[in-house]
Specification:
alpha/beta; Rossmann fold; two-stranded antiparallel ribbon; oxidoreductase activity; oxidoreductase; Probable oxidoreductase
Length: about 325
Amino acid sequence: MTARQTPVHSGFGAASTASEVLDGIDLSGATALVTGGHSGLGLETTRALAGAGARVIVAARDRRAALAQVAGLANVEVLGLDLADLASVEDFSQTLLARGTHLDILIGNAGVMACPETRVGPGWEAQFATNHLGHHALVNRLWPALQGGARVVMVSSAGHHTCAIRWDDPQFDRGYDKWLAYGQSKTANALFAVHLDRLGRGQGVRAFSLHPGMIATPLQRHLPREEMFALGWIDAEGKPANPAFKNTRQGAATQVWAATSPTLDGLGGLYCEDCEVARVDEGQPLSFVGVKPHAIDPQQAERLWSLSARLTQVDAFS
């Protein structure tokens, strides 16, 4: 049994921008945490939320660089956080909890894509560790700050179509493929939202995941120009070549919409795209549109939660 992926007729679409989906929404008095909120889609998300009145805490691995990026934005604070380092996650969480801050919104935006094989912590594959395990530990450690009413939004990707959770080898110990590893980490983001929503809804916490669309951002920093050309993303001169690409304002819209839209009140555990609840795609070949059943299956979500809790030794619900 999977989540009920039924569109809610939001009135927005692929071309909508983050500021447009926030039109008429007053976030004064709300506090949002955005991981990677200083770069690419994260920066546009920070701008939009702060512009609507929210206080925004940006969690960034390079605090100094992040401060330069958000300079001039009102009501924005930067704190250091390395999602690939569980000690950093713990220190960050303790700092925030010591303040007694309630988080109304948490957007798991930070991530890495298609990087060369890299091992972090006890030998974990870096994309799974950074994109998923770090966020798992962060949300669980910050659970006291979320209870009572919050939305948690995980930035997944249509890349999840390529790879379900590899239960027999989640760390790619038997041969590394950068795109399959990325796809698995994005499936993990979606499954995390499914199970968090199941566990948290009684405490007023609802969770969503999403595909932001294709956007040229620093996320592509590990891809050589030749590969992006072969994929049809850029032309021979390095200029954008795919008309389906969104700009960053459009790319940030779905995560802002999922975090704030009253249309989603009472809902959760859903995968979204283009400012709408996505439909399930069970077809072949891969369409990269909608959500695959393996990314919203509650049994796989529970199994992933158990695996993640064992690996990170963090589970707010145990």
